[in-house]
Amino acid sequence: MPAPRGARENFGMRELRSGPRVGTDAMCWEGDRAAVVVDLSPDGLRFERPWAGPIMDDRVQLELELPEIDEIAWVGGEVCFDRRRGLVQTTGLRMVSAAARDLRRIREYVMERARRMRAELAFELELAGCYARG
Q1: For the whole model, what pTM was predicted?
Q2: What are the boundaries of each domain within the chain?
Q3: Is 60 left (phi over 0), alpha (psi -120 to 50) or beta?
Q4: Which CATH number does 21-128 carry?
Q5: Which residues, including other chains, have CB under 8 Å from residue 56's CB and lie 6 or more apart?
Q6: DSSP letter at 86?
């Protein structure tokens, strides 16, 4: 039987996303190693950095610079995957601990960015539609 839409396999456990995922280019730091968050959701994130060896712990503490807000959030996460693609290391985290204020700000940022992206797409489709009518 196929997995439900939006489901993903995570170490043999099925999870469903509870919110949208948006692309971003936020900076984060894992200790003294800088990285770039390439996508963010209310429940997790994916970040990339130059390859420096696999992450040995199953939990990671990140300092995340929230885009457009210019504030720092401390996020604790469980490593879902850690991959090497050439010289780039990509790590996915499920957020498991953070201050309530930081979780709220992350959620608000993701929801607002997703809303703006939908509005931009609707505008582009409407604009493209005028060429189809002509």
Answers
A1: 0.74
A2: 21-128
A3: beta
A4: 2.40.10.220
A5: none
A6: T
